[in-house]
Design goal:
With about 500 residues, this protein is mostly beta strands. The strands form seven sheets. It has a nine-stranded antiparallel β-sheet with strand order 2-3-4-5-30-29-28-26-25. The longest helix is centred in the N-terminal third of the chain and has 25 residues.
């Protein structure tokens, strides 16, 4: 063989090897359901294999009313697997969505779900507001105030301006408290101990009136959401549609995405996604769930963590303090560093834990059968090939110092399309929203109170009774999927890493 022929042979062999690697990468790396940790890495598929029901559509936020032992869950659209007449669930299609409620047992078990607020009616001919403006449309973010009222923020586009509603179970009233500008969702609704009402404006139109031509993080001042009544705000018209409006108090913008974070030691930009080297990749426009972690008993000073629903994802941290005049000062902040966990992903809904940490949901888990789904994470990792099994979990976050935060991914709580996670008052039982199509009810019970690093994951098998309208009821049987620890599952994920 000549030197030239030998060289050509080496080149062809190398190219064939690279092609084989590329082909293998395109084929994906999805594990089988016989994998020892399939319950936690492919939670929905594993649950379905054991008989759990995977037919829900657009399951959004879950919130627990600890005072009244109730759970509320939003589904922004009731369609597809829920309304196709097949399987365990068969209800009327409702493109305006439903808020469900459940009575929890003394041990915080959820045994059935039933409709509480049914959106609609839907009128396809009404292009601006297909869903009635006098009722909820595509409910997403939820909160409960000190009087047991349920606050409901809207998602998507069946109202020209998405609304913030208040439902009072005591008298059945539903009142419009606020709205966001054109193109924007209401996100991150949270009510603090002092009655401060936080909510964000996500992906507004660029043609709105400043500052609402970009996503903002904000709070309502001069109104106590735990105690105060209000007169409903009207549906906005004219230029009012280009701003955020509230029925009582005033809306204060704490931070606008794209602006500098005050006194940031790293000169961070709000909403900026920074790679493992600390370089700015892009600035998002999608402020989402809030996690308010006060540092005093009054709840007037502390850390406000906010999700940013991007890929790669991120979370911002602001240190804020309420003034004597009732406004809030933003003292400093940062974009949280997630390099220790290989980055984070589509951070959507959120909640504070009972022990004053933040719980962030990684939505729409990466598709392990298509490795191109994590190309953006490979970019985040400066070219190191991302592992799809690193994304799709609940992430716990809390301050380490004024300029750094500790982050922990709770692999043991399952890999799914986490909207949010809410911990019951026993500090062990956790319920989730699993967003998307053909999704599932999940429950987690921690091995020890206040520690989410070990425990047992369950999935719900649903039996429907009643009719197909507002009278339907979902009885829930919980199927145990598995018991493990974060460390065990993380070790299994590392065994699946790809060579760069």
């Amino acid at each position: 063989m000549s030197k030239r022929t030998a060289l050509l042979f080496v080149i062809v062999t190398a190219l064939l090897s690279l092609a084989a690697v590329a082909s293998a990468q395109d084929e994906g790396m999805m594990i089988g359901l016989d994998h020892p940790y399939a319950a936690f890495l492919e939670s929905r598929a594993y649950g379905a294999s054991l008989g759990a029901t995977a037919e829900f559509r657009k399951m959004e936020w879950t919130v627990i009313d600890a005072a009244n032992n109730k759970l509320y869950m939003a589904m922004s659209e009731v369609a597809r697997g829920m309304s196709d007449g097949e399987g365990s669930i068969s209800v009327d299609e409702n493109l305006c969505g439903i808020v469900y409620e459940a009575d929890l047992t003394d041990t915080y078990d959820m045994l059935e779900l039933r409709p509480l607020i049914v959106g609609g009616p839907y009128d396809e001919a009404n292009k601006a507001n297909p869903c009635s403006v006098d009722n909820i449309s595509e409910p997403d973010t939820l909160a409960v105030d000190g009087r047991g009222r349920v606050w409901i923020g809207e998602d998507a586009g069946n109202h020209e301006n998405n609304m913030l509603w208040v439902f009072d179970p005591a008298d059945g009233s539903l009142k419009r408290f606020g709205y966001t500008p054109l193109g924007a969702e209401v996100t991150g609704v949270y009510i603090g101990k002092d009655g401060s009402l936080f909510f964000n404006v996500q992906h507004p139109n660029a043609t709105n009136i400043y500052p609402f031509n970009a996503s903002v993080i904000g709070v309502v001042n001069g109104f106590n959401a735990n105690t105060d009544d209000f007169e409903p705000i009207a549906v906005p018209e004219g230029d009012a549609r280009l701003m955020t409006g509230v029925a009582a108090g005033t809306y204060q913008v704490l931070s606008r995405l794209g602006d500098a974070i005050p006194n940031s030691s790293k000169n961070h930009i709000m909403g900026g996604v920074y790679d493992v080297s600390g370089d700015l990749m892009f600035v998002g426009n999608n402020a989402d769930g809030n996690m308010w972690l006060p540092v005093n008993e009054a709840g007037t000073e502390g850390w406000l963590y906010s999700n940013h629903e991007t890929t790669p994802g991120t979370i911002s941290k602001l240190y804020i303090r309420k003034t004597a005049e009732g406004m809030w000062d933003v003292l400093d902040g940062e974009m949280v560093d997630f390099s220790s966990v290989n980055g984070t992903w589509i951070n959507c809904g959120a909640a504070p834990s009972p022990w004053n940490t933040g719980l962030s949901g990684e939505e729409y888990e990466a598709d392990a059968s298509d490795l191109t789904s994590v190309d953006a994470m490979t970019d985040y990792l400066d070219g190191r090939l991302a592992n799809p099994y690193d994304y799709g979990y609940i992430v716990e976050v809390w301050p380490r110092t004024s300029t750094t935060s500790r982050v922990v991914k709770h692999y043991v709580m399952g890999r799914k399309s986490n909207e949010n996670a809410w911990v019951a008052p026993d500090n062990r039982t956790v319920y989730f929203g699993d967003d998307g199509t053909d999704t599932m009810l999940f429950k987690f019970i921690a091995a020890e109170p206040g520690d989410l690093s070990a425990g047992t994951l369950y999935a719900g098998k649903v039996t429907q009774s009643g009719g197909t309208g507002a009278d339907h009821v979902f009885a829930i049987e919980w199927i145990e999927l598995g018991t493990a620890t974060n460390d065990e599952i993380q070790a299994a994920i590392r065994e699946l890493d790809r060579a760069s």
